[in-house]
Amino acid sequence: MDIRKAPDPHALARQAAEYIAERIAAVLSQREHCHLALAGGNTPRALYALLRGMDLSWSRLHFWFSDERCLPAGDAQRNDTMVKEVLLAGLPLPQAQLHSITAELGPEAAAQQYTKELSHIERLDIVLLGLGEDGHTASLFPDNSALAMQNRAVPVHHAPKPPAQRVSLSLNCIREADERVVIAAGKEKREALARILAGEEVPAAMIGEAVWFVDEAAIAGLCGEAPTQCQQ
Ligand code: 6PG
Questions:
Q1: Residue ranges lining ligand 1, Cβ < 6 Å
Q2: Are the C-beta atoms of 172 and 138 separated by less than 8 Å?
């Protein structure tokens, strides 16, 4: 488990932004486009603000979403609303390069539509994910039936983190991506990280090999306890 430790959330955002920019450039040195799935929640805000200020060959980027909440389009609590405000505001990104999840249609219809849209690419290049306090990632929650579903995008019901209805990339889709990057900040994520380092099978541990960017509050006292690479 490749853990990159930052002293605070701002340093975490900076380190993750530099890493993601580097990985995007690596993809674009091999291919015409880079398909990047974006994490929701609050942690990525600072990261997206930094990426917005970087020269990322934007015209060759396709933005997907790791998950979306089933709320009306434009709702402030939707993940794509935050991305449009923080990462993409003022960017002349063609609509065809922003692949929002039509979660306002409801979990089943939106998951079916997103799976179809994802079928047009071989795989995602980079999937950016957050970590929930219970070990969830994207909208894949512990013991939720969505974990076992095989399609690339899956409907989520009874999510313990509101709203209860969501759409998520499946474990399969996350695992088949070329690269996974997880970001986690704050002491409220420490318990989930401890369980992952202890080898517990929580969704965020099931995604396979990933680069983890964590801040000191989330990892304090944990790095020494596990056979893991824990870079400063
Ligand atoms: C969501 C996210 C979810 C998030 C984690 C962490 O829609 O809520 O996709 O997976 O990444 O819950 O959220 P925070 O970054 O806000 O702590």
A1: 39-43, 66-67, 69, 79, 130-132, 136-139, 161
A2: no
Regarding an ipTM greater than 0.90, the answer is yes
pLDDT in tens, 174-214: 999 999 999 999 999 999 999 999 999 999 999 999 999 99
Asked, for residue 228, whether it belongs to a domain, the answer is no
Q: Which atom belonging to ligand 1 lies closest to the Cα atom of 129? A: 11
Residue among 12, 38, 43 whose CB has most ligand 1 atoms within 8 A, to mutate: 43
Instruction: Specify the residue with its C-alpha closest to ligand 1, atom 15.
Output: 43
Per the CB < 8 A criterion, the answer to whether 232 and 5 are in contact is yes
State pTM to two decimals.
0.96
Query: In the chain, how many domains are there?
Result: 1
For residue 151, being part of any structural domain is answered with: yes
Give a yes or no: residue 227 inside a domain. no
* 124 neighbors 160 (Cβ within 8 angstroms): no
The model's pLDDT over 60-78, given as tens digits with 9 standing for 90+, comes to 999 999 999 999 999 999 9
Q: In angstroms, rounded to a whole number, what is the distance separating the alpha carbons of residues 68 and 110?
A: 10
